[in-house]
Amino acid sequence: MESIQGSQDRRALLDRWMNERRLELRLKWVEVARRAKMSPQNLVRVRKGLISISWDAADGIENALLWERGSVEAAVLEGRRPAARDAAGRNTEPVSVSGPAREREEAPPGWTDEDERLWLIARGMLHSLQAELTRRRWWVMREEYLRLQADADQQRTDGTDAEQASRARSE
Predict the structure, then answer these.
(1) Each residue's pLDDT tens digit in the chain (171 positions)?
(2) What is the fold of 1-104?
(3) Domain extents for the chain?
(4) pTM
(5) Whole-number Å distance between alpha carbons of 8 and 148
């Protein structure tokens, strides 16, 4: 799956903001890693900009540091301070990435986890087009998109087959 890279300067900013938030929450780095569901070693690599940030890692960091969803992305891609939320999950500061890549709209009715995953891939594609797009990066995104699309199609087919079988049993 595509990931978030950003410039070294923005990654250094993210590291600084992560440390400030960790201190505000009175957490040790080991606890941040545990809450983010990642190893302490990978957390260090993310903080120091040694590895790209996967979407799962970004979500984990946002959950661990009680940041609003999209905060890691906004920090790395636009240099914007992450938006905090309280322990109950209420947003205490607004956050958005400019442009259509991160709109703060509700998901349409019937939106599934697969739709969300496909949307995240498309969003990554948009950011890649705005940043540096290599053939390898495009190929990885394309393959992931096709795989997820096939999975989503299969789930829809499985759901239709199960629904038809249920109807046949009741008739």
Answers:
(1) 467 877 888 888 889 999 999 999 899 999 999 999 999 999 999 999 898 888 889 999 999 999 888 888 888 888 888 888 765 555 554 444 443 333 345 667 777 777 776 766 666 666 555 455 556 666 677 777 788 888 888 888 787 666 677 777 776
(2) 434 Repressor (Amino-terminal Domain) (1.10.260)
(3) 1-104, 106-171
(4) 0.52
(5) 31
